[in-house]
Amino acid sequence: MNYVFLAMVSTYIGALITLGVFAVLSAIGVTITKDNLYAAIYLAIATGLVGAVYGLFGITYGFILIYLIFVGATITMTIVLAATYRRVEFRGGVGKSWIAPMLLFIIAVIVASAFTNYEVTPVTSQSLISFASTPDGLLLIALLASLLMAIMIGLIMYYLEVSGGWRS
Amino acid sequence: MEVVNAAILYGFASIILMIGYYSALRANDLIRVLISLELMFNAIFLALVPLFAVNAVVALGILIVTILSSSTEFMTLITAIMAMDRIRKSVRVEEIKAGGEQYVESKSNT
After folding, report:
1. Which of A25, A63, A91, B68 is the most buried (most CB within 10 A)?
2. What is the ipTM of this complex?
3. What DSSP element (H or E) covers A68?
4. Distance of alpha carbon A109 from alpha carbon B41, whole angstroms
5. Which of A2-6, B38-42, B83-87 has the highest mean pLDDT?
């Protein structure tokens, strides 16, 4: 029975479902962990998996933008900030009954989008390789990577200044 | 050419968005609120993927605007968190009150 199901699911859909399931699991990890640093690391994993969906669909510029700008700069700053204000939090806020309307929203979105039957055609996966082999693409990647390194060096210096040294 | 139903993408995006909302509502310190906001932006990026099949140039423009707005919102929140940490010596959500209230005592962050 499982083999029949696996044969029915195509390669793209299988890869997409795998990436989505792991992204959702990382998002749940953000919610249930008590340490801010681990929450930021789970957030980085979820963002990387969302960027991998862009790579799966062959959206080259979106993939590079998300990986180098969003993951590289914004998420790195989140991790450093969470490491600065790292402490075990005790829970507050709203009660757990708020899960019910959220589940209703998720079900409504899935049912509505399934009935509209809006289909997406992925681009061939060769586009990423061809992008990285052109001089302009390599120059863009090199520039973004150098920007990333400058941001990371600044963040490390900030962290060392704030905390006075690396914590164990 | 293989075809993917967009309901898969929208379903995962809505699940991640709702987890982000729940995490922000349950959060007790402002850092966790910031992390939850970034998680919500992840859901927006995921929901943007089907638009690339319709008009790739417009979708890339929306993606760039989304990334820039998320970075701006992120820097604004960091500035607010640092200012609050400097004034109140705490990043707890309970410290945020309406303007004009008298502050009584300072609570330690550690």
Report:
1. A63
2. 0.85
3. none
4. 17
5. B38-42
Whether A54 has a pLDDT exceeding 70, the answer reads yes
Size of interface A-B (CB pairs under 8 A): 190
Average pLDDT of chain A, as a whole number: 81
Cβ under 8 Å to A: B residues 54-83: 56, 59-60, 63-64, 67, 70-71, 74, 78, 81
d(CA A40, CA A75): 8
pLDDT grade for A119, boundaries at 50, 70 and 90: confident
Nearest CA in chain B to A69: B67
Q: With the CA atoms of B96, B101, B107 and B108 taken in that order, what torsion angle do they form, in degrees rounded to the nearest 10?
A: 60
B110/A93 touch (CB, cutoff 8 Å), yes or no: no
DSSP codes of every residue in A144-166: HHHHHHHHHHHHHHHHHHHHSS-
b/e map A120-145, b = 16+ CB within 10 Å: bebbeeebbeebeeeeebeebeeebe
Asked whether the beta carbons of residue A81 and residue B31 sit closer than 8 angstroms, the reply is yes
Check if B33 contacts A (Cβ < 8 Å): no
Q: Which of residues 108-167 of A touch B (CB under 8 A)?
A: 109-110, 113-114, 116-122
Supply angle C-alpha B73, A85, A44, rounded to 5: 60
| B50 with A120: Cβ contact below 8 A | yes
- A164: region left, alpha or beta (phi > 0 left; psi from -120 to 50 alpha): left
| Residue B52, pLDDT above cutoff 80 | yes
Residues from chain B contacting residue A77 (CB–CB below 8 Å): 74, 78
Cα(A28)–Cα(A99) distance, integer angstroms = 13
Rounded-to-integer distance, Cα B11 and Cα A21, Å: 11
